[in-house]
């Protein structure tokens, strides 16, 4: 059994990690920390876990995380970069679900995240944890930067096109819609039910932190810099991301065949039949990205529809998928949940 | 492996049965019928099941349901009463998730359901499948009438009080709120998103079909006729029932102790700590009834709060709980889903 | 034109007051204060008001509220009790939409609201602003305590029964469901979209601040102390309260006739035809309480269904109704909005 | 007073027309027809109208619509084309809120709408009722084709760019999100609350009926054929459309200035300050299109965000705006509703 700890267990990615790990079969959850809620039983804060979890939140200092085989950081940005070093030195592997190690260019990171990086030397060691791209590197990684939710949906959607070299790379468009849980479980006015309910809006059009992450990922695959317009929107869903991707074709290609071929071995990507429209609820609670590819009116513009559960394939599920790779387990162990529909 | 068939697989209880049976481990799903959708792959109608189910909907006539060990009817009212006889004669056990066998008094049933009963003789044989009351009879039943969603939440909430004989029985009140999936997956105006969304209303105050079912169940336990006012409401949830129950105490009693004691062996009922308020989302997707008991201002009125997922403990999950009892399996096999929160 | 000021304009009752006053025709809005947002244009915080309001939030100190004819307090509890005195002394009339002057028994108020009352002497002067009960006193009031949202729906629903003396007064039950805007526009975890969305729960069963207010109002009308169990619930609506009221009849009576007669002159109460079920959306945005009265199975229990928009008849609209009475205007001037449906 | 009739008053555009006309001040509503509901009081079907409307639905045959000055068709596609002729011959002006007269190319229309056109000769007479483009023609029109909801949001958003000639016209992208009321008030499974709630999906990517309408409108303004990719999505809103528009700039331009200048005289378009993100709720219930224009990272791609209430500026409100022009009234008479927020 892999001994696992979770730092920062009071947010949505924390409770989702616990839910998924409970059914994994190969892990022992030894600690869930929270500075603020230390002492409170986890199942008191999250009654959905009553009968499943006996742990109480523990103080990070007293939690003996050093004895874990793996520690997940389900913390706000800026925490893992301060605490990962000592865990890594103690031989503990680390998966950070926040953004601390996602951007290789530390200056770029500091610009978008508005803080100095506490461990720039770790950034170079970190492996970007998108298993559909980086499985080999993840298998031997000590420190994994789990991708953001938007970046997961967008990169998986564009990958086959970029790998195949069939689109113009200077003007990609990613029009993305996210459920409100993507904003986390923190008290803020703009995500209150009466603000976000029955309402739809774009935000961060002039620039969003996930833009450099997506650009970095796509550029690596392309072998050259890509031009991307990224517009995120908030939609009254609890969970779910829908990415609608647009690119200009520069050569004719069997798009459906290309996508099916590209993902035929992927454990956690599902290419829908031609003409489909994936729904966010078809992945609710599950670690899968479903996608469909269209070429409206047989024109030059290819449209990719890509959906994930932002808390699962966009966060906690993908982290477990990375853990499985790091520990030599089947990639989708513990990740075969049937989505909840309706 | 228990060979299982589902008659009527295109509704919400059908797809939920499939979801839960997929993780059960002791059943083989051999047929899912639909007269209307015969030939369509199940996972095409419900993309959440892609990768899990290879079956197509089959025509009921050609489905060879007679070779099943158990058949679930996830059909509208009035179907099982026509088709159960031949299955039972062939040695197949039957669980009806509709209302055909719930009311012992056939005349009463015909009054509320507005049709003649096709198999009154089967009504007497049927066992009312509320495992927390009828476990012994269910174990040996050939035909189980799976309870309605409201009746499950209401009966489980009142049971300890009635068994203990501590309340007046002539004026019980059940103020119940249901998510919209309780109305089923059929095209109707009043459950459209723009009608039921951002809206709250009572319905059926003058009389609802679940009233005689609840009265029958409570009266059996009480050993006398009970008086009940039942007011159902439609609330903009997808899943979930919240029953708020009121009764007048006639003797002083340790209510918290009473409830904990009553349900201490129950596999699928969770009594919350004193002072709690159960949330519907704390049971989303799970086969559990969570409840709390209150006595506001130490007065004569006891208030019980009882929540279930109407599609699980209120339908498909409870049906599987009954199946487990009928086939000598652990009562909660395949029913240990962690609720999805948020 | 009545010169009007609003203290505390950044919450939901504030913006709703502005929306309604814009169409009133008899008022001039001279100041909307906010200590925190002073200087920000009102229409920048609430883009729905673009093109209608040129005011910026002003600092309460510099707002010259003393020159108003009327000041509305749309503030948290505990503000009006500190500031009303000087306004009243300057001849300004005051309507407090918070709870500071609602409870005559100051000790009781201090117990439920957890603070010392800053102006107990004003409590005695204040008129409880439920126009359907107190119209005469309101007309000459200098200080009006605008009722709470739950108390409005509950009192209006019970009034005809109590006035007629046809129910037992020791065991009234008010099972109430509120939309989330009732919790106000403040950053809190439990009203976030992912917490309150697709979720239903009771809260405050052991005691809620609106309980003493309702009891006081009903007891005054009854001429004796009434016994009430009040259970509020949070439902995933933005706006709307649905009160389901239960009482035991002690004499036979034409309930429909009683209700129609009682409210036949009421400008802002609508008694629905026999057998109706009022929906919250039928009052969305409008200053009306719609209700229906039922006697299920012709038994002893009467059930009243009463709906309001918590921000209108439950707050801002009722405040304007009170203002109209205080200034000798038609009671429903500016309050004839057609509800928004769907 | 203008004598007005509504054909087909039981849908969402019908009830919204009534709501808005009630506050117009210059019209007399003489008939609301419904073949199916003839005889039922309008306010019985829509209790939001209780106290405002005494009319009952009338049979179209017996409604004497010929005596109206204006008849609105709030019917499904294919009705107005059969009935408009006789009204026009009787001197009645007609505004069709459905699609019958929107597409000039009758063959194109028949292809997309799947029926033969009953009055091709009327198509040529009809004026496309987008007042921000066609005000002059509308003023003298006898027959107005009221634009679709998506086409309104998209055309208003692109207009300033196309008029100014600053974008490439071969690859416009319109990524649009609609609330569910856009699908109308008809019983269908895919718009049930449990289907459309907490769910997000694209639809009609290979081709949607609003595509030729948008292309026609933009091409007329451009003076040449434009290339457009149009992807509609269904989002769990009741009301609201959010169009996110992408185009490639071919010359440098002050975008903010361009938009403010273009719409400075427009009564029903609101250009937000630079950097803004319009929310759908900021137009809820109101006849206004709010928009913002962005140029992310100062690149070649311009992003326009455009929001309307699909039932108001996208349907009933725009129809009244057209009526005002046709009858020489101020363009926004009766259309100054303050949006309902929250």
UniProtKB/TrEMBL annotation, chains A, B, C, D:
Domain Semialdehyde dehydrogenase NAD-binding as annotated: residue spans: 3-141
The UniProt record lists the keyword Oxidoreductase: yes
Main localization of the protein described in the UniProt heading: cytoplasm
UniProt entry keywords in alphabetical sequence: Amino-acid biosynthesis, Arginine biosynthesis, Cytoplasm, NADP, Oxidoreductase
Active-site residues, Swiss-Prot/TrEMBL: 149
CDD domains documented for this protein: AGPR_1_C (cd23934), AGPR_1_N (cd17895)
EC assignment: 1.2.1.38
GO function term, MF aspect, one: N-acetyl-gamma-glutamyl-phosphate reductase activity
Intracellular or extracellular location(s): Cytoplasm
Enzyme class per UniProt: oxidoreductase
Catalytic activity: N-acetyl-L-glutamate 5-semialdehyde + phosphate + NADP(+) = N-acetyl-L-glutamyl 5-phosphate + NADPH + H(+)
The protein's annotated pathway: Amino-acid biosynthesis; L-arginine biosynthesis; N(2)-acetyl-L-ornithine from L-glutamate: step 3/4
Transmembrane intervals: none
Pfam families: Semialdhyde_dh, Semialdhyde_dhC_1
Family under the similarity heading: Belongs to the NAGSA dehydrogenase family. Type 1 subfamily.
Alphabetized HAMAP family for the sequence: ArgC_type1
Function: Catalyzes the NADPH-dependent reduction of N-acetyl-5-glutamyl phosphate to yield N-acetyl-L-glutamate 5-semialdehyde.
Name under which the protein is recorded: N-acetyl-gamma-glutamyl-phosphate reductase
Protein source organism: Parachitinimonas caeni
